[in-house]
Design goal:
single chain; 361 residues; alpha+beta; OB fold (Dihydrolipoamide Acetyltransferase, E2P); six-stranded mixed β-sheet; five-stranded antiparallel β-sheet; 34% strand; binds adenosine-5'-triphosphate
């Protein structure tokens, strides 16, 4: 298997700078996801790893081997695209076998054995003689996956493989992909714009924004400790409050937001980052909907309800407090237009500090 390093990778297309110095280190066997809004450079990063694009600057290395100039077919990668790209005139088995056009099957296996093995792996045993048109979208995507895996590549690259499928199928397929990936322990780079999918499937996630990596971390770190306001707002629902520091003690800040004062205890890493904070500094902190509830008695605020969506298990409520948009998750639909909720001081997470701009002086 393979580990992967990108160092200072940039890509310029004429007037457009798609990538601005991407640094990534993906470990052997990791399920690593690139997530970010449309146009942020996820596909370009993946294509550069695959060798379909050469970087304008920077380096791509597989196990310390420099890949610049190495054509895609010599890179030991399997790629699955959003559109299945299967040959309609070939059977499922022939499509999978096409994955072996440049490389022999793994030692000790015939081509036919390898195809059967892969069809079994992707839960399509017995379907080898069908044509792609006789399969569902999810089954077709599993044929693409089997084809990509046929030569036993060191690296598997998946570009939005589920985006053409309906929600239910996406969930099933993502469990299958995850199972196959862990079974094979193959280093996998997965591209998606779906942040929920990114959290659900990955060992680690890189949040990409405008051609740069904004944060790399485990799904838990990204969700609970977003490094920037962009990550806080892009990954999951969040409430962002902008305010001004009034007082600070060793671990607690009193912050004034829209004429109201809140007490917050920034998480440890940010307490460090915030050592330069002083009274009068501006900052932004976020509170997840699950931490902003009617049952918490501290940091109370009164929310005007605007809409509520019944999601089955929970109800997502959108509203406003002094002009600040608020999103809540409740067990039951609200029975009034005003709701009073609160958050614990350690339920707040600081995402933007004015002292950062001052260099923590
Ligand atoms: P999406 O989720 O919509 O697929 P993405 O994050 O994968 O987006 P990319 O496809 O990598 O984004 O594109 C990044 C930027 O580079 C965009 O501004 C895009 O228009 C531009 N771009 C990509 N490929 C080319 C190309 N071949 N020529 C010119 N510009 C390109």
């Amino acid at each position: 298997m393979t580990d992967l390093t990108l160092e200072g990778v940039s890509k310029v297309y004429g007037e457009t700078t798609a990538l601005r110095g991407i640094d990534l280190a993906v470990e052997d066997g990791e399920f690593f996801t690139l997530v970010g809004p449309s146009g942020c450079g996820k596909t370009t990063t993946l294509r550069t790893i695959a060798g379909f694009e050469e970087p304008t600057a920077g380096s791509v290395r597989f196990d310390d081997r420099e890949m610049t100039g190495v054509p895609p077919e010599d890179r030991d990668v399997g790629v699955v695209f959003q559109n299945y790209a299967l040959f309609p005139h070939m059977t499922v088995a022939e499509n999978v076998g096409y994955g072996l056009r440049f490389r022999d099957p793994p030692a000790g296996t015939t081509r036919e054995e390898r195809i059967l093995e892969l069809l079994e792996l992707v839960d399509l045993a017995g379907m080898g003689e069908r044509r792609p048109s006789q399969l569902s979208g999810g089954q077709r995507q599993r044929v693409s996956l089997a084809r990509a895996l046929a030569p036993e590549p060191g690296l598997l690259l998946l570009d939005e493989p589920m985006s053409a499928l309906d929600a239910r199928l996406r969930e099933t397929l993502r469990r299958q992909v995850k199972r196959i990936q862990s079974e094979l322990e193959i280093t996998t780079i997965y591209v998606t714009h779906d942040q929920e999918e990114a959290l659900a499937i990955s060992d680690r996630v890189a949040v990409v924004r405008a051609g740069t990596v904004e944060q790399v971390g485990t799904p838990k770190e990204i969700y609970r400790r977003p490094a920037t306001r962009f990550v806080a707002e892009f990954i999951g629902d969040n409430n962002v409050f902008e305010g001004e520091v009034r007082t600070r003690s060793s671990d607690e800040l009193r912050v004034r937001v829209s004429g109201r004062e809140f007490d917050i205890v920034p998480a440890d890493s940010l307490a460090e980052a915030g050592t330069g904070l002083e009274s009068g500094d501006r900052l932004a902190f976020c509170v997840r909907p699950e931490a902003l509830t009617p049952t918490v008695e501290t940091n109370r605020l009164s929310v005007t309800v605007e809409t509520s969506e019944f999601l089955g298990e929970t109800v997502r409520v959108h509203g406003r407090w002094n002009g600040t948009p608020i999103v809540l998750r409740l067990a039951e639909p609200p029975d009034a237009d005003e709701l009073t909720v609160g958050f614990a001081p350690d339920g707040a997470h600081v995402v933007e500090l004015e002292s950062d701009a001052r260099g923590n002086d």
